[in-house]
Hints:
Layout (H helix, E strand, L loop, with lengths): L1 H25 L5 H11 L7
Amino acid sequence: MGAVVAVLLVIVLIGLAVLIGTLREVRPTRPSVVRAREFRRSARPGAHD
């Protein structure tokens, strides 16, 4: 049983690594935090009256 559990853990870790890698590749240039800050900065009340 120990070997089966070890294999399952390895598969899960590889799957997580692949998911994280694809997520980073899909959106490397648009971090949501920076976008939110820039949006707030540009959308201040009175800035575009």
